[in-house]
Amino acid sequence: MANTDVKRVHTGDLGELKERLVGINRVTKVTKGGRTFSFSAIVVVGNENGVVGYGLGKASEVAAAIAKGVEDAKKNLIQVPIINGTIPHKQELRFGGSEVMIRPAAPGTGIIAGGAMRAVLESVGVKNVLAKSKGSSNPHNLVKATIGALCELRDAYSVAKIRGISLNQVFNG
Fold first, then answer.
1. 173 Cβ contact list (under 8 Å, min separation 6)
2. Is the pLDDT of residue 66 over 90?
3. Which of 45, 48, 148, 161 could form a disulfide with 73 if both were Cys (CB 3.0 to 4.6 A apart)?
4. Alpha carbon distance 37, 28 (integer Å)
5. CA distance linking residue 145 with residue 40, whole number of Å
6. What's the pLDDT tens digit per position in 79-130?
């Protein structure tokens, strides 16, 4: 996530954000008084129109952990370029032990992705994409790698603006 031109989004600019629970873990702390259980939840929120964010919530009850995760996710929203229901170009990224690869797909393909990657791609509003995860299947790292790969996507308009050239020159070289 080293991309410096990531467009952060404020929640006031958006419509309704839909939340998706990616994973929930029960963790145990052993004390002299016995075992203390708590829960951690990783949540992805998005408006299915190019805005997505993820958050982690921890609490002693499941509902409270999910609510904290949603609030954290709303603080980390990013804008993703979507062109004709797919992504502009192929992107790969590694986070921890997880490596993800996402590629644009033809109309009618659908979202070919599994688990945590599917939740992120559905939340961002991509309709056709091919995705593959390699390495660790840890949902935390997969979500972070997928969001990181989406952060690094650039459309032709932003490339032209950064280079200071016209849109035709981007495609014609």
1. none
2. yes
3. 45
4. 5
5. 19
6. 999 988 899 999 999 999 999 999 999 999 999 998 899 999 999 999 999 9
